[in-house]
Design brief:
By secondary structure, this protein is an alpha/beta fold. The protein folds into two domains: 251 residues, Rossmann fold (3-Layer(aba) Sandwich); 99 residues, 3-Layer(aba) Sandwich (Oxidized Rhodanese, domain 1).
């Protein structure tokens, strides 16, 4: 057992005692642990796949204050896994949708919405408002920023990651054990840099991983059991197995003492050749009027292209390009598209090295394009 993260609240109301009765009667929980949950302040990064079960079960367990950080809105493609949201919430900010569901679930919980992206400019102040961070983010820029801000503010981080059929869970706390950078010193490159939105995710997987993350948060708050600090749990959903790996601090790692420009860097190549959605829209309009000529190439795979695409883009999957079965024109301007801008940026860099001079890409990919479109 570890020391509890927070001191217990003064008391529980009769309504709270009735609500949490089945939890309080568990040997080793009792009133003391429930009062600690009430006193706790937990910040959840992302109201998406992992954040959804974490938010619901943190609220159901009786965590007193829950903060939600997310700047996105609810989309139909979210609903197969982001169970805190429903069809009536389509188009609504995720923080508002999640906050409404939490208040419906447990009116004793205070919800604080942070309808913004976590940045190097707000992370330190925001983390200072909470006792614990639950990182359910889906991109490497946020994960590394959160890890660094947590190290500076000495906050434990319950971390989870999902992709396709595999999930990972751990607890990071730089002053007491390994941090995220001890496990992953630098952001990944190539296919490993894909988010779950780009690579796909099995719909029930976030529920399995997100609830495991919530268990770790409750153990940290109350001091019950043994947390995953210094351990990495890996789930293979298809095999139905959990594996565990020991983690150690890297003795050569330089401690993080301040957030610099690199803290918000997701490891992508310099994007001087990236077009904004507005830039691409203007080019497409000019092409329709025969005032511009360029080849708009979608480098995603066929399944992705079938689900959603920009009108006028032709499909040339990245796997075919790498296999040499498709050529990128050298005699005309080319604009590359992928889902989030990762694959297109890396292909652009590779093509430039190979002598392609007239290649650009859509920064942020199809995701940025859809966000920029007017909402009907």
């Amino acid at each position: 057992m570890s020391a509890p993260l927070v001191e217990p609240a003064a008391d529980l109301s009769s309504a709270e005692l009735a609500r949490y009765a089945r939890q309080i009667v568990i040997p080793g929980v009792g009133l003391d642990a429930q009062r600690r949950l009430k006193a706790a302040r937990v910040l959840v990064l992302g109201a998406g796949g992992l954040g959804s079960p974490a938010l619901l079960y943190l609220a159901a367990a009786g965590v007193g204050v829950i903060g939600i950080v997310d700047d996105d809105v609810v989309d139909a493609s979210n609903l197969h896994r982001q169970v805190v949201h429903g069809t009536p919430s389509l188009g609504s900010p995720k923080t508002a949708s999640a906050a409404a569901r939490i208040r419906e679930l447990n009116p004793h919980v205070t919800v604080q919405e942070h309808r913004e992206r976590l940045t190097a400019g707000n992370a330190i102040e925001m983390f200072g408002l909470y006792d614990l961070v639950v990182d359910g983010s889906d991109n490497f820029a946020t994960r590394y920023l959160a890890a660094d801000a947590a190290e500076i503010t000495d906050r434990p981080v319950v971390w989870g990651s999902i992709m396709r059929f595999e999930g990972q869970v751990s607890v990071f706390w730089a002053s007491k054990g390994p941090s995220y950078r001890d496990l992953f010193p630098e952001p990944p490159v190539g296919p490993d840099a894909l988010s779950c939105e780009q690579a796909g995710v099995f719909g029930v997987l976030p529920g399995q991983v997100g609830t495991a993350m919530t268990t770790e948060a409750i153990k940290l708050i109350t001091g019950m059991g043994e947390t995953l600090l210094g351990r990495l749990a890996v789930l293979d959903a298809l095999a139905g197995t959990w594996r565990e790996f020991r983690l150690e601090r890297d003795p050569d790692r330089v401690p993080i003492t301040q957030l610099g420009a690199s803290a918000a860097d997701d490891g992508e190549p310099a994007d001087a050749d990236g077009l904004s959605p507005a830039d691409l829209g203007a080019l497409l309009a000019a092409r329709a009027c025969r005032e511009a000529d360029f080849d708009l190439i979608d480098v995603r795979e066929e399944d992705e292209y079938a689900l959603d695409r920009i009108e006028g883009a032709r499909l040339v999957p990245l796997s075919r390009i790498r296999a040499g079965a498709a050529e990128i024109p050298r005699d005309r301007e080319v604009v590359l598209i992928c889902q989030g801008g990762v694959r297109s940026a890396r292909l652009l860099a590779s093509l430039r090295e190979d002598g392609h001079a007239q290649v650009r890409h859509l920064a942020g990919g199809l995701d940025a394009w859809r966000r920029a479109q007017p909402r009907g």
